[in-house]
Amino acid sequence: MPTLTLADWQQRARDLHIEGRAFIQGEYTEAQGGDRFDCISPVDGRVLAQVASCDQADADRAVASARAAFDGGSWSRLAPAKRKAVMIRFADLLEANGEELALLETLDMGKPIGDSLAVDIPGAARALRWSGEAIDKIYDEVAATPHDQLGLVTREPVGVVAAIVPWNFPLMMACWKLGPALATGNSVVLKPSEKSPLTAIRIAQLAIEAGIPAGVLNVLPGYGHTVGKALALHMDVDTLVFTGSTRIAKQLMIYAGESNMKRVWLEAGGKSPNIVFADAPDLEAAAQAAAGAIAFNQGEVCTAGSRLLVERSIRERFLPMVVEALKGWKPGNPLDPATNVGALVDTQQLNTVLGYIDAGREAGAQVLIGGQRTLEETGGLYVEPTIFDGVDNAMKIAQEEIFGPVLSVITFDSAEEAIAIANDTPYGLAAAVWTADLSKAHRTARALRAGSVWVNQYDGGDMTAPFGGFKQSGNGRDKSLHAFDKYTELKATWIKL
């Protein structure tokens, strides 16, 4: 297949049909109150679609649909091997419609089309397929019981799952939840972010085409303070899973306690340290990785390497290498396959990022590169990738999650100091260590309070290992077999022989 050009993608964007309605009981439907909101592209500021703005009434409809589907058993009691086949078809359909989904993702969220095609769509399909493939390979247990008793330990689906997903990787994060939730037999009400709802709305129809029964997957676009709150407080939702900010995560825990004590699993914010020791085996590779760790996806990544900790003895040699590497990350039209830095998701996020850049300057940190809005004439929302030097870990830009391409450089003198700085944060999502000393790598990795630690790389891994955070970065784990724990209940059944 020939490589598509900017002009090709622009024409496809003009021809694209965009669905903006909610999806309940197997069909698209307007919000019951008739409310809509404009879905605005950060690429150029144009309105992509009017999207249903769901509320309490719609949450009630969707949860009732999900409950009826679960209790009916057409999915929840289907043999795991049969659910597996449907999940694989669902993944296949995502891939078959990959170009359409990638275009929706780019127009809606602002990420480069090359990333949507190479990262988001394959990652989403992989999550569905991996969970489907795994589900008929998980066995129940028999407890070590006396000869006159049989103790069976079985996993059962929790029931109705409400999944609230973020705007930075809309489709992939949705599928990280949908894969294990659906594979284990649950029904799901999916609430995408109002900032980027379009791919979630689209894949609902693909789920039906794959063979998932009506009512098993419902999609409710809308605002967090209305439909998101309604789902979190709903008395007939059994489990709530969420990826997003720590502030909202804490509020969702309160809502769960105020309602039916539903299970709440949260993947929240991060302020990940990227530690480069003087004995790093390849400083050029470390510099390239440091640039990519903050510029990829415009820095709108929960695991962004937003704190670069550099050993003092290599600082003067290493920092110019990072600056030079970041020059290769340039904002541009996200529909251009050559672009590697796209637009920030909306005006609110643009202003947030620019506000942090101002705060860094006011605190006395020095801008080495970037620090400005750019391409304003396009109508899009673009910011130059930025490096601050002379950062103290107590500064606002080093303590708070920015969710933009803003890197804070902090110098250290010993491994103990590096670990102390790295752990001096409310978050604990991810970290990286660069050293040629295997013992130092292990000691440092074990001392870091983070759910994922990478050694001599940044952001490695696949579906086989769990993903999640320590401290205020959340609880529970996505990906791997451990993800099934969030969507299943353990039951002990005792049989007298």
The amount of helix comes to 25-40%
User: Sheet with the most strands?
Assistant: 7 strands, mixed
State the shape. Answer: globular
N- and C-termini, Cα separation: 64 Å
Let me know the number of strands: 23
What's the CATH topology label of the largest domain? Answer: Aldehyde Dehydrogenase, Chain A, domain 1
**CATH class category name of the largest domain:** Alpha Beta
Residues in β-strands, percent? 15-25%
Name the CATH superfamily assignment of the largest domain: Aldehyde Dehydrogenase, Chain A, domain 1
Class inferred from helices and paired strands: alpha/beta
CATH architecture of the largest domain: 3-Layer(aba) Sandwich
How confident is the prediction overall: mean pLDDT? Answer: 98
The main sheet orders its strands as: 14-17-18-13-12-20-21
Rg, rounded, reads 23 Å
Q: Counting H and I runs of at least 4 residues, what is the number of helices? A: 15
Low-pLDDT sequence parts: none
Number of structural domains: 2
